[in-house]
Amino acid sequence: MVRSLAGIAIAFVLFGLFLSLTGRNPLNAYLRFFGGTLGSAVGLSEVGVRMIPIILTGLGAAIPARIGLINVGAEGQLYIGAWAATGVALFSGIDQIWLMIPAMALAGFLGGALWGGLAIVLRSTRGVNEVISTLLLNFVAILLVNVFVFGPWKNSQGFGYPYTPDFGSAAILPAIGGTRLHLGLVLPVIAVVVVYLVLNRTSWGFNMRAIGGNDAASRRRGIPVARYLVLGMLVGAGVAGLAGMAEVSGIQHHLRPGISNNLGLLGFLASWLAGHNPLTLIGTSFLIAAIMVGGDLLQIGANLPSAATFILIGLVLFLVLGMRRKDLATP
Amino acid sequence: MTVLVALSGALAGAVGPGISVLYATYGEVITERAGRINLGVEGCMLMGACFGFISTVESGSAALGVLAGAAAGGALSLIYALLVVKLNTNQLATGIALTLFGMGITAYAGREYVSESIAGLNPIPIPWLVDLPVLGRAIFRQDILAYSAYGLGPLLWFVLKYTRWGLSLRAVGESLSVSFAAGRNPALVQVLAIALGGLLAGLGGAQLSIAFTHTWSEGMTAGRGFVAVALVIFAMWSPMRAMVGAFLFGGAIGLQLQLQSLGAPLSPFILDMFPYIITLAVLAIWTGAALRAIPEGLKSVLRGGV
């Protein structure tokens, strides 16, 4: 913990060095950075907005990781989840919010699970490693969403811009108290609690840990390893799909290209930083979300492109991973 | 008929788009033969594409640009080498972090070069050979980096199989402890292999921006680095088979471009999926065979399936 915090501090110092080398005042930049994230209620609410998808995609990596599966596909699962939830929002004809929101969440979960399912099918039937298949499927998912938002789902009143018609009010997660923070907040809260309890308090969780430790021994002990692998990936990918549902229903209110700026990869990294522990994941997601919000403020204030945020996130990851006494989740 | 025209066009167009991926695949073959898997190839390619392009614009020399691109890719991979080999961090997470870092740096450094264009490297037809039927133009009307890529495959194959350095590299990839006991320095060998891998990925990225598109745009590698990691498995860790894989991928891009220009009644985004889907299909078909060739040292990372 101390080492991790030291690593974060050094990363900020290095990034400050980068800022001053490129002719910016790092002190001013960091005042704006911290003032606008941790220093105000609005800033904190924005951090919360970013935490929602990062926790969900992080769980998308953490759940399969328990059984030794590596899901780098939360980005694609988020997109397909958003796509499925949008389908329900636009075409189901449901007009009551208490029915519509659960239906969209279910669709988002199933969409993500379907996308993760492709990877696990490739692995179970053809032996294709899931690291590579989930990575490649990310690109396919992003293009698939484009097919729809540039094509059949395009808003005819959108002045030619590629997005779907806006959702009806029943399909929108209500905002909390005048901020952009929305009731989708409930999703990561429930997901973290459930995943934590299942992993640590049930025999399923115990078996998952056993499989992650030694799958051959688990098989000999009679644990249905193949079933766990499939279900673990489906549930993880489904939770990542919920992130897509939360983004379109809570923030965007329609589907468009580029709804996620690498939220899936950021969730993956948040999960690694947390050693795949769902409770620690809350902290690491907070860290990454705060950097993203702060980065956006620097984009406006210090005229930095938004992608420069990834420089700081990269530095934090390098230093925290490198300074940790022992990587919590080797290999 | 349309399909036939598209296919012959794709064949002719398979080499050009495949070269950048081929370099990255060579690089990752070397890294993985030494027992490490670097998902930061994507970031290294971006570094090569960005800094190669910037250097070409600023110096006016494509040759300098290529060197700068390779150096940028190699430099980025040194971060990975330090973390993974010296500090024993997780390879996959470190690789993904490296890719994000590379995205950030290149988006920042390249933002004022997005609308620039360069003469860059252009095809040099090889007399006589270029007139060969069917494949003549495809293979022998390319830029200098393509020709050196043809030669690099056999060269790497030879180095890996018959030289002391190659033997040392493979020994480290099979077992760290045994090669250490045999008096070698496994950490040094791995750092060199990773740096060489990053260098080649950077070279591939530079080929993409300097010789293929002649432009720079944010995130322009679009997953080619990840494709390279996939092709290494298809290639069964052999540089010669890497050539086959890269040209399959290039062929998919060629087919996509052909269909697009012929006005196929398909969403362009569906066509854009071809290269990724074909890469996945190739893996689905050949992974079983590849399993037998996996370096021992990678098994703990890629357990269960390749």
Distance, first to last CA of chain B: 39 Å
CATH topology of chain A: ABC transporter involved in vitamin B12 uptake, BtuC
The largest β sheet of chain A comes out as: none
What percentage of amino acids of chain A are in beta strands? under 5%
Question: Proportion of β residues of chain B?
Answer: under 5%
How is the main sheet of chain B built? 2 strands, antiparallel
| Count of alpha/pi helices of chain B | 13
Structural class of chain B: mainly alpha
Quaternary class:
heterodimer
Rounded radius of gyration of chain A (Å): 20 Å
Count of individual domains of chain B: 1
Shape of chain B: globular
The CATH level-2 architecture of chain A is identified as Orthogonal Bundle
Number of strands of chain B: 2
Fold and architecture overview:
The complex is a heterodimer of chains A (331) and B (306). Chain A is mainly α. Chain A contains 13 helices and no strands. Chain A starts with a helix and ends in an 8-residue tail after the last helix. Mean pLDDT of chain A is 92; it is low at 327-331. By secondary structure, chain B is mostly helical. Chain B has a single domain, classed as ABC transporter involved in vitamin B12 uptake, BtuC. Chain B has 13 helices and 2 strands; from the N terminus they run αααααβαβααααααα. Chain B has helices spanning 2-12, 15-33, 41-59, 62-86, 91-109, 136-140, 144-162, 164-174, 176-181, 186-213, 224-234, 239-261, 268-290, and strands at residues 124-125, 141-142. In chain B, α4 (62-86) packs antiparallel against α5 (91-109). The longest helix of chain B has 28 residues, at 186-213. The radius of gyration of chain B is 19 Å and the shape is globular. The N and C termini of chain B lie far apart (39 Å). Classes of the chains: A mainly alpha (331), B mainly alpha (306). The interface between A and B is large, with 56 and 55 residues.
